[in-house]
Amino acid sequence: MKNKSFKKIIAYLLVGAMMISTPMAASATTISDAYGISADDTADKSNDKSDDKSDDKSDDKSDDKSDEKTGIGGDLIKDEIVESGQLNVLGITLDKDMVKLNASVDTYKTDVLQARVLFDNYNPENEDMAWALTDDQKLQVAKSIRWEVDDESVAKVSILEGDASNTRAVITAVGRGKATVTVKLETKDNVWKSATATIYVTEYASDVEYNQGDALFYEKHTYDLKEYTNLIYKNDKLSATAPEAEKVTFSDLKLTGAKGALSDDGILQVKKADSSSTATCTITTENGITKTATIKFGDANPVTKIEIKTPSDKKMALDYGKQGKETGTIEIKLIAKDSSKPTTDDIEWTSKKVSIADVETKSMLYGKRTDKDESVKNTIIATGDAVGKTTITAKTTSGKKATVSVTVAATPDNVTIYAFDGSEDKGYSTYSGKKTTMKAVLTAKDKPLPVGTTKLKWSIEKVDNKADKNAKVSGKKDIATITPANLLTDPDNGVTVKVKVVATWKDNGSTETKEDTYTLALKQSDVSDIEILSKDITGDAEKAIVGKLPTKKNAKAGNIYIGNDYNCNVNAYNSAKALDNALAETIGWTVSGKSAEINENGILKPIKAGKTTVTASYVTLDKSKAKTKAKLNKKTFTVSVIQNASEIALNKTEFVVSGLKATGKKNITISAKAVAPNKKATFTIPNDGWKILAADKDGKDISGSITLKKSAKKVVVTVPGSVPAGSTIKVGAYTDTGAVAYAYIYVTNKTSKVQPKISVEGAAATEPNKKGEEITLGKTATITTMIDGHSNAYVNKKGTTYFYEYEPVTYTVDKKGSSVVKVDADGTVRTLKKGKATITVKTISGKKATVKIIVK
Question: How far apart are CA 20 and CA 125, in angstroms?
C-alpha cells in the first residue's frame, strides 16, 4: 500500500471521523449520557463475537492465533509496514487516564474512552466530518486499533456501537474492583504503540459499620474515621479508604466531656478528651444508608522528653561507597508523663534532605510500642542520590522532638573514563577542530557513585616531556571537553592523544588517588565548504520536516518543535570542491542558550520555547605555501524553538440559539486556546481546520445553511432563522498540531422561565417549597424541569446525537450544601447528612431556578 493511503488511514485513526455526538442528553452531563448509552447498548457484543469466532475454529488454529492478538478491535499491523517507516506514528493516547464507575447505578455504569493515534505529519485537511463513515473507511481504520481489559470481573470493554474506526470504546462496570484498559496498535510479535487507563468500579453497599476495636482515641491527636469504617456487601466488606469505595459522609458529631471537630470526609481532630469522654457521629453512604458510630477515648499519656540513645553524640556517618555503610540505626527513649505506662504519642520522622538520607519508617503509631521503657528504633538509609549533610528529626504528637545530624559520603575505589560513544580506554576517534566530551565515572565495588567530595583533575599526557600540541582539555568535575588542534602534527596519518583523569578523595583520614587514561584517535579534517540540511528523526523513519536549513551565514532557519529531534546533516565538499559526504562526520556542532541541545553527531533536540543559534564548525587546510595552515570556519543559523499545543480548549463547549425569528440570524463566536502542555503553547487552526455538521430534529442534514467566518484561533458561526428548533450543530476545531476540540450549538424555542418540580421519596412531583423541601436522611428525591411549561427532554435521537426543542439543563449544588446532598445528572438528589442545600437548575443560555433542600 502506498504512503498516501496510509496517511488517509492515520487521519481517521487520529480522531476518528467526526461523528456528531452531543455532551448532554436530557439533563445529563456524564460522558456515558452524552453518547446516549444505556445498559442494553453497552453489552459486551464485541467480546461475545470474539468468543463465538474462537469456538468455530479448530483447537490447533485457535492456539496458533492466541499469541498473535488479544482484546477486541481490528487486525494486526504487518511488521513490514512498521519497519518500512510508512506509518510515522508518534504514539497513541486516551482522553482520560482514570475512569470511575458505579455498577449499582445505570447513570454511572458506563463511560466512553476516546483513543487518538498521533503521527508526525498531521494535516487537518485530511479530517472528515460525517454522520457515519463509509464502509470503505470503516474497513481501512478497523484494521489497526485494539482494546482490552485485564479483569473482566471488574469491567468490560466494547467498541462504541456505530464507530467503525475503533477509536471509541464503551467501558461497562461489572463488579467492584480495579482494572486496566489498554488501547494499542500491535504487530504479530509486539505491541507497537499503547496507552492505558485505570478503571475503578464501585457498587453500593448493603450496610455500613464502624469498628474501632480495642483502639482508643486521645487528645491532641487527629484520626481518619474512614480507616475504622467498612462497607458491607453480600459476600465481603471493603474499607471506606479504598479507591473503589463509594463516598461516605460523616456528620452530627456529639461530644460529651470532650472537645474536637469532624470534617465531612471523616477527619476527627481531638482537642481535649479522657477515658470518661464519649462521642457519636452519623455515617451516611452515597446510597443513603446511615449508621451511628460510637467513638471511644482514653487517658492520654504524652511524651515530656526525648532522649537519643544511639548515636550518643547525635551524629552519624554513612558511606554507600567503598565502606559499604549505607544504613545506620537511631534509637530514642520516650519519657512519658506517667513513666509506669507506655506513651500514647505517635512519632513522625522526617529528613531535611531526602536526596541524601531518609528514614525507613515515616510514622510510628501508638499501639506498636507497649513496653514501659519506650525505646524506639528506626533505620536511617543513605538514599544514594547525593552526598552531604542532612538532619533527621523525630517529633511526637505532643510536640517534643529530637534531631540527629547525618553525613553521607560516597568513597570510590576506582575511576574510569568513557568516551562520547560509551567506550572505555580506546576505540573512539574524532577529527581536528571538532570538540568531544568524555565522562569520568567513579565506582565502588563496580557500583556507580556521585562525584560528591572527590576531586577530579583532567589533563592531556605529555609527549617527550612536552605538552601535546594536538589537543587541549578543560574539565568540570566528571565531564571534560577535549578540543583537538585545527592542524595535527601528523595530518597524513593522524595521531593519538592520551586523556587522563586523576581522582583524589579522603578515606578514614588518609588521602587516596586513582587515575585512568583514554587513548583518543584524531584524524585530520580538510573541508572546503558545507551546506547544512535538516531532517526530523522523531518517529520510526527519518524525513525532512522543515525543509533544508539555509546555507548562508547567520540566516534564519525557521521553526523547530519540542518533541521532535532534528538531524543537522551537511553536504560537505573536499579540497577539490567535490561533494564528499564522508566528510560530514568531521563537522563540529554547538548551540547557544538553553532552548536546545546538540550532540557531536549534529542531533538537535529542542528543550524549551525560545531561540537558539546553531553553529557548524569545519577545518579547511591551506596547502598553497610550503607550510600548511589550517583555519576553523563556522556557519550559523538561528531557529525558533516552538512548543506545540497537545491539547486545546474552546471558550465554551455548549451554546444555544433560543427563539430565533424566521427572518433573523444569530452569530456564535467560538475561540480556542492552548491547554497542554502549557497555556503558551503554539497552534493554528487552518481554514480547513474549522468544520461543522448540522441536522434538524428529524435527522435531515442542514449543514449547507450554516456559514462560518474562520480565523487561526476563532470562528464565527452564523445560524439563520431558517434553522428550526430542535436542530443541533457540531463545530470541530482541528489544529495543525493534531489537537482537537468540539463545541455544540443547540437551536431551541425561546426560553422565558425555568420551572423545576420535585418528587420526594416517590411522591407525585410538585413545585418545591420555597422555604425548603424536606427529605429524610438516607432517602432520595427527583427533580424534573419544564421550560415554559414544556418538557426539556430530547425530542429525537440520531445515532449518538440528541435534539432539543427546549433547552437542556444542568444541576449544581452550592458549596456548603455539597456535603449535605449530591445531585446526579438526571436530577436524582441523594442525601449525605443533615443540613441545608440549594440546588441550581440552569440552562445553557443562563436562565435558572433554585430548589432548596432541608435534610432532616
Answer: 18
**Cell numbers placing 646:** 497537545
Other CB atoms within 10 Å distance of the CB of residue 568: 23
- Please give the DSSP secondary-structure letter assigned to residue 207: E
* Residue 850: DSSP 8-state: E
Strands 278-285 vs 267-272: parallel, antiparallel or unpaired: unpaired
Q: What is the DSSP letter of 421?
A: T
Residue 510 phi/psi, 5-degree rounding, is -100, 155
Can you say whether residue 479 is alpha, beta or left, with left for phi > 0 and alpha for psi between -120 and 50 degrees? beta
The amino acid at residue 544 is A
Q: What is the pLDDT of residue 92?
A: 78
DSSP SS3 for 521? strand
The pTM of the whole model exceeds 0.70: no
State the CB neighbour count (10 A cutoff) for residue 180: 14
Helix (H), strand (E) at residue 34: helix 31-34
Calpha distance 147→498 (Å, rounded)? 56
Q: Residue 548 has what pLDDT?
A: 38
Instruction: Tell me if 82 sits within 8 A of 540, measured CB to CB.
Output: yes
Distance separating alpha carbons of residues 812 and 827, to the nearest angstrom: 10
> What per-residue confidence (pLDDT) applies to 566?
81
Beta bridge pairs of residue 329: 379
SS (H, E, C) 103-150: CCCHHHCEEEEEEEEEECCCCHHHCCECCCCCHHHHHHHCCCEEEEEC
Rounded CA-CA distance 74/94 in Å is 17
Cell numbers 510500642: residue: 369
Amino acid at the residue 727 = S
Pull the grid cell for residue 651. 471558550
Grid coordinates representing 153 are 470481573
Residue 168, exposed/middle/buried by CB under 10 A (0-12, 13-18, 19+)? buried
153's CB contacts (< 8 A; 6+ apart) are 174, 175, 177
* Tens digit of each residue's pLDDT (9 = 90 or more) over 594-634: 999 999 988 889 999 999 988 999 999 999 999 999 999 99
Mean pLDDT of the chain: 82
User: Is residue 127 over pLDDT 70?
Assistant: no
Query: Is the CB of residue 659 less than 8 Å from the CB of residue 847?
Result: no
- What is d(CA 172, CA 149) in angstroms, rounded to the nearest whole number? 11
Of 351, 377, 349, the residue nearest 362 (C-alpha):
349
Identify the bridge partners of residue 515 per DSSP, sorted by sequence position.
502
Residue with cell 489497526: 144
Which amino acid, residue 5? S
d(CA 72, CA 149): 10
Letter for the amino acid at 56? D
pLDDT at 623: 92
Radius of gyration of the chain (CA): 35
Strands 436-444 and 447-449: antiparallel
Torsion 503-508-511-513 (CA) sign: negative
pLDDT at 644 over 80: yes
The Cα-based distances of 701 to 35, 710, 731 in angstroms read 19, 21, 14
Going by the DSSP 8-state scheme, the letter that residue 228 receives in this structure is: G
CB atoms within 10 A of CB 613: 16
pLDDT for position 385 = 85
Q: Cα(223)–Cα(259) distance, rounded to whole angstroms?
A: 14
Residue 7 DSSP symbol: H
The C-alpha atoms of residue 837 and residue 822 are separated, in whole angstroms, by: 10
Q: Which of 279, 258, 261 is nearest to 223 (CA)?
A: 261
What's the rounded Cα separation, in Å, for the pair 219 and 344?
Answer: 10
